Amino acid sequence: MATRIKGPAIFLAQFTADAAPFHSLPAIAAWAAGLGYKGVQVPSWDGRVFDLVKAGASKTYCDEIAGVCKAAGLEITELSTHLQGQLVAVHPAYDEGFDAFAPKHVHGNPSARQAWAVEQMRLAAKASRYLGLKATVSFTGALAWPFIYPWPPRPASLATESFNELARRWRPILDAYDAEGVDVAFEIHPGEDVFDGATFEMFLDALGGHKRCCINYDPSHFVLQHLDYLAFIDIYHERIKAFHVKDAELNTDGRQGVYSGLKPWLNRAGRFRSLGDGQVNFGAIFSKLAGYNYDSWAVLEWECCLKDAATGAAEGAPFIAKHIIPVTAKSFDDFAGGASDTDQVKRLLGLTRKA
Length: 355
Description:
two-stranded antiparallel sheet; 8-stranded parallel beta barrel; alpha/beta
C-alpha cells in the first residue's frame, strides 16, 4: 500500500517567546504557515501556546486549539511532553537542575515533582485523544545515566535494577495511554536512560514489550554517538511513530571524540546543525522510512550552534518538502511485463515439460 510521509512540520519549543509573533498560538501558527509548514508540534508545558490542564479536561478547549491551527492551514502533529517525561525519573545528582522543568511549588521536593510529572503525562494522554492524535513525543528520564561509563566498576545488577524501576514508573503511564489509544514515542537521547537501541531494548524488555512504548526517531543524536542511524530504522521501524528532522555533525580530531560535552557547543566535536549543514544523509533516511510505510509527520527540530533560528526555520520547510517521497503505486517496469498465470510460472521454472 502506497504511503506518504506528512509534512513539513515544525516543533515550536525552540521558537516560543514573549515577543510577537511567538507569544501566542494564533500568531506563531500564522508565522509557521507563512514559512510553508503544514503541521506544528506543540510543547505542552508552554502556557503561551497551550494549557495542558484545560486540554486534559475539555474536548471543547482542544477543539478550539485545533481550530486555531486549522485557521492557519496547519494540523497539530503531536503534543511534546519531553520536560514532563524527563521528570518521571531523575537521579538525585540532577535534582536541582531539573527543578527548572517543573512549577515552583514542587521545587526541592523530588517526590512531589515526580507526582506532578506523572499527572501531566496522564493529562497529555487525554488531550492527545481529544485532539485526535496518534502519539505524544517524550523522554524517559534517567536513573542510571550518571553511571554511563563503568568507572568505578558498577555493581552487576545496577543496570537491571535501574531499568526495572524505570519500567515500574512508566508502566501505569503507558497503560493510561493505551486506554486512550495513543502511543508514547520516546526520543532516544543522551541524558536519558534510553539513549540508543540497546537501552531501548532493555527498557522494552522490562516493560514486557508494552505496545505503547515507541520511538521518536531523531538521527542527530545517533550521529553524535557514531551509531548507524540507517540500520537503526531497519531494526526498529515497527516502533518508530514520530520523526524529528534534525541535523548534526561529528568532527573528531586529536583532541576530541564523542565525549566532548564539557566544551561550549561551538567548540565540541559533536554539534547540532541546521538542516543541510551537518552530516546526516536525509535522502537515505526518508527513503528508508518511506520503504517501511512510515506515514506520520516529519517535524523540524531546529537546533544549531551557528545559524540563527529565523534562517533555520525558513530553510527547514523547503528542505523537508524536497525530501518527502511521493511513493509510487506501481513498478517502473510494469510497461514491459505481461499477464501471467500459474501454468506460465510453472513453465518458466521448468516444472512443466513437454512429453
